[in-house]
Amino acid sequence: MFFNWIGKKKAQREHWSVQILQLDAHGFIQAVKDLLSESEPAAATMCVVALQNLGPILSVAKNMARDHPGKGIPTDLDSTIRFLNQGIPPTDEREKRRQDWFLWALLVQRASALANRNAAFHEDAAMIWIRLAEGGKYLRVLLEENIIWDNSEKEWFTPIVSERDGASYVLNHMSPKWLRSNDKINAFAESHDFFVFDF
């Protein structure tokens, strides 16, 4: 269980999101799956928001690293996770929560990338994204009065007016294309009355 594992590590100074980088691919993917499955659905919702907004941030970071070589600007997922943990500490609770959700999003991206390289991990990756789709069901409700995210960060989800829309958005617009034909993904979609298109 993920939180039992965290308990064993809490005496160490290094943040848990950096510690699990030391796990092999199977252990890492399992840890991310457990993190989501053992958390409240609202945590998955916040992770979805961070994931959707992570792309532009990583793109800017890559451009900055290209324009300013040697400045220590991260260019991959592992270095970004470490950078986020070793950078300037959050100044308030809002910033701390934002940092935590972006860390969760980075972990999901890394788990998805690892799973893409090995079909043996596809089922675990599917469960990760199904959990995120469950979180997507609450996007409309939880973002309405949410102060953690700026309005510009919420705009992605404006078309969502129902739980079905939210779950569909996560799987059709955010999940890896290579995963969309997975049987578990499609069974979840069918149970929520929508299709997942693998293009």
Commentary on this structure:
The chain is an all-alpha fold and 199 residues long. The chain has one domain (15-191). 66% of the residues lie in helices and 0% in strands. The protein contains eleven helices and no strands. Helix 3 crosses helix 6, helix 4 crosses helix 6 (93-116) and helix 7 (122-136) runs antiparallel to helix 10 (163-174). It is globular and about 50 Å long. It starts with a helix and ends in an 8-residue tail after the last helix.
Descriptive key words:
199 residues; mainly alpha; 11 helices; 0% strand; globular
Short description:
The chain is mainly α.
Write the layout of secondary structure elements.
Elements (H helix, E strand, L loop, with lengths): L1 H8 L6 H4 L5 H13 L3 H27 L9 H10 L6 H24 L5 H15 L2 H5 L7 H4 L8 H12 L8 H9 L8
Helix pairs in contact: 3-6, 3-7, 4-6, 4-7, 5-6, 6-7, 7-10
Number of domains: 1
Number of helices: 11
Instruction: Encode the helix/strand succession as letters.
Output: HHHHHHHHHHH
Report, as a whole number of angstroms, the end-to-end distance.
34 Å
Largest sheet: none
**Structural shape:** globular
Helix and strand content put the structural class at mainly alpha
Mean pLDDT: 89
Ranges with pLDDT <50 over ≥5 residues?
2-13
Binned, the helix content reads 55-70%
Q: What proportion of the residues form beta strands (DSSP E)?
A: under 5%
Radius of gyration: 17 Å
Strands, total number: 0
What's the multimeric state? Answer: single chain
